[in-house]
Amino acid sequence: MIEICEYNPAWPREFEGILTEVKDILDELALRIDHIGSTSVPGLGAKDIIDIQVTVRELVPEIVARMIAAGFQHREDITGDHLPCGEDPDPRLWEKYYFMQPPGRRLIHVHVRKQGSPNQRYPLLFRDYLRAHPHSAATVERIKRALTRYHADDVDAYYDIKDPVYDLIWDAAQEWAENTNWQPE
């Protein structure tokens, strides 16, 4: 069941703990580690899952080996991201490794993406755009709450609707980034 919770001001602190742990696991392989997703946007209601993005030079097997050795669950069935309308469809641009928390821990999603790929830029720009545009963030929350009213038990339907809505915001975010000379924090 998908549930959207009220914003929790503890989410950024929880991310900091996860950041330290993942940094210790991946060490020199991680170029940067960012809090992404709805829990990274102050005031935005979200699923109670801390999403983090690890940016790496290359997606190499050692990343998977280290994360599994640390107890994280590698989702081999998730190897890429949603392709926003109008973006380059080359699947190599949308590749990632995806991990979930070790058993018994708080819900965590770890997305490992290659530096400079569009799927590495997407969550950073999306996060920063919503932080700078609280009305858009509030609209995202309204959409997600409506989706859970109708599709809380159907993950496929939830994302089949949510992803194209996010594509609309993606277009606006890219224009904003160009107009403001945006760079990720």
Automatic annotation (TrEMBL):
Entry's Gene Ontology molecular function annotations: transferase activity
PANTHER family: GRPB DOMAIN PROTEIN (AFU_ORTHOLOGUE AFUA_1G01530), GRPB FAMILY PROTEIN
Record key words, sorted: Transferase
Top-level taxon: Bacteria
SUPFAM superfamilies: Nucleotidyltransferase (SSF81301)
InterPro entries named among the record's database cross-references: GrpB/CoaE, NT_sf
Name of the protein in question: GrpB-like predicted nucleotidyltransferase (UPF0157 family)
Name of one Pfam family that matches: GrpB
